[in-house]
Backbone:
């Protein structure tokens, strides 16, 4: 999928993006929100293999602003009507500027219109209030809170919130 809006571009990740993804994934500051405050300790080879093995069931995307990579997104097909997504704006200087709503609007619109999904699901850390606010502005509904459902890299218990968005409840911010 390729989506554009003003200076933003979302496109499928290629092998040329592997080094950038590897740097982001190994950066504890970037990965802390996902429970990896020390990064995920992956290798360039592992990232390349993941990109090469992408298919229509799971596909990673790169977010670019003025042709510079600022983050990543992924969707995973759960069934013919439903997919799960993830997003990270990895360039901290690009956070808190309203891009999240626009980027998610572009991506979700593509999932509904190009891939014919009827529902998009995601989860986020219970403490990630900024993300929760964005998801709810797009029409996502809280499904459940998973209290102390997993341990992060340092052994701390973490809680998550499950969200879902039905196509006819999507509020685009484009």
Residues:
């Amino acid at each position: 999928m390729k989506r554009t809006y003003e200076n933003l571009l979302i496109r499928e990740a290629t092998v040329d993006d592997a080094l950038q993804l590897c740097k982001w994934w190994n950066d504890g500051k970037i990965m802390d929100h996902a429970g990896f405050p020390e990064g995920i300790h992956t290798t360039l080879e592992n990232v390349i293999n993941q990109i090469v093995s992408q298919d229509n069931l799971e596909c990673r995307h790169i977010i670019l602003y003025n042709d510079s990579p600022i983050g990543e997104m992924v969707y995973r097909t759960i069934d013919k009507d439903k997919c799960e997504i993830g997003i990270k704006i990895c360039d901290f200087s690009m956070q808190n500027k309203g891009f999240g709503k626009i980027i998610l609007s572009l991506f979700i619109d593509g999932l509904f219109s190009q891939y014919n999904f009827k529902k998009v699901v995601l989860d986020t850390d219970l403490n990630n209030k900024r993300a929760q606010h964005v998801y709810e502005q797009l029409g996502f509904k809280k499904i459940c809170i998973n209290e102390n459902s997993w341990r992060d890299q340092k052994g701390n218990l973490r809680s998550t919130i499950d969200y879902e968005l039905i196509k006819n409840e999507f509020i685009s911010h484009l």
Remarks:
- The first helix runs from residue 18 to 25.
- Strands lie at 3-5, 8-12, 58-65, 68-79, 82-89, 119-125, 141-151, 157-166.
- The chain has one domain: 3-169.
